[in-house]
UniProtKB/TrEMBL annotation:
The gene is ribAB. Transmembrane segments: none annotated. Keywords: Hydrolase, Lyase, Magnesium, Manganese, Metal-binding, Riboflavin biosynthesis. This is 3,4-dihydroxy-2-butanone 4-phosphate synthase. Mg(2+) 2 binds at residues 28, 143. It is an enzyme of class 4 (lyase). NCBIfam families: PRK09314.1, ribB. The record marks 126, 164 as: Essential for catalytic activity.
Length: 336
């Protein structure tokens, strides 16, 4: 077995099968075993623990986490990809909670969220709930969002089970290893990037205003206001003429004090100089509305709308800070 279409993956999830979901090579470059919470059973959980060997997690949407009282594990998430871990949980009726039988018991309680309550769980435990972004992979290109999107596309409850796949020698399984894993266990595999493309064929999370003209820091620009699925407004400034290959600056608006008393001011000024002299696009995100600059789904959709395919990112940060953009068909060709 190996890579299949998203339609085939949705069919597998709908029929209760396990699949492997792999993310971008520039991001984690890892594969997760994935199945729907609605079809969780002891056999699948035991398979994940025994053969995938990673951390067994249960992605849910924000509403389910709130209803069941699954608070975030930390307030200030400093992990590489800011995965939204909640406090760990066990079913209250479990003993140790660590066996495949009792982990499945906990997963079933989460999946039956309409009748379950916070009182049905104890904290901490052995299941790691994760909170998916509302916009799914169009907002954050991660395994958490991909698994929930697949469940929703299959017409199932937005509860999934995921587990990272680890090699026998203890190293993370990469693309070639995942191919062997899928062949060994007769599993289908899909990429998060293909799921992004599938969703973008039929939907978008953004809406552009009419093109406007004005100035920014004394520089003549064209600009759009872009409203996303949460009614947040991003401002997109175009310097000069843009093409399929363009300079791009992602800027998160901070408080005046933070902006003026850190290196953000000098970096922003440097970026404006490049944009004024060479042309390009500045996308400004409101820090209060957009909690993380590592979730580039909205920015990527903006660039796709502008027909930009190859980008020079204006930033001192390289690689992993911008991981996932290639999943939207964007090719990072350099940094400035």
């Amino acid at each position: 077995m190996g890579f299949v279409s998203i339609e085939e993956a949705i069919k597998d999830i709908k029929n209760g099968k396990m699949i492997v979901v792999v993310d971008d090579e520039d991001r984690e470059n890892e594969g997760d075993l994935v199945f729907a919470g609605a079809f969780s059973d002891v056999e699948k959980v035991n398979f994940a623990i025994t053969h995938a060997k990673g951390v067994l997690c249960t992605p849910v949407n924000k509403e389910i986490a709130k209803k069941l009282g699954f608070d975030l594990m930390v307030k200030d998430n400093t992990s590489n990809h800011e995965t939204a871990f909640t406090i760990t949980v066990d079913a209250k009726k479990a003993t140790t909670g660590v066996s495949a039988v009792e982990r499945d018991m906990t997963i079933k309680l989460i999946t039956n969220f309409s009748t379950s309550t916070k009182d049905d769980f104890v904290f901490p435990g052995h299941i790691f709930p994760l909170i998916a972004k509302d916009g799914g992979v169009l907002e954050r290109i991660g395994h958490t969002e991909a698994s929930i999107d697949l469940c929703k596309l299959a017409g199932l409850a937005p509860v999934s089970v995921i587990c990272e796949i680890v090699n026998e020698d203890g190293t993370m399984a990469r693309r070639d290893d995942l191919d062997k894993f899928c062949k060994k266990f007769d599993l289908n595999m899909v990429s998060v990037a293909d799921l992004v493309k599938y969703r973008l064929k039929n939907e978008t999370l953004i809406k552009f205003s009419e093109l406007k003209y004005g100035e920014l820091a004394g520089i003549k620009v064209k600009f759009y206001e872009v409203i996303d699925h949460k009614n947040n407004i991003q401002r997109v400034y175009i310097f000069g003429d843009i093409s399929k290959t363009s300079n791009v600056k992602f800027h998160k608006i901070s408080s005046d004090y933070e902006f003026l008393t850190t290196d953000k001011f000098s970096e922003f000024k440097r970026s404006l100089d490049i944009l004024e002299n060479e042309g390009g696009v500045l996308i400004m995100f409101d820090a209060l509305q957009n909690g993380s600059m590592k979730d580039y789904g909205i920015g990527a959709q903006i660039l796709a709308h502008l027909k930009i395919e190859k980008i020079n990112i204006i930033s001192k940060s390289h690689n992993r800070d911008f991981a996932g953009l290639s999943g939207f068909g964007l090719d990072i060709i350099g940094y400035k």
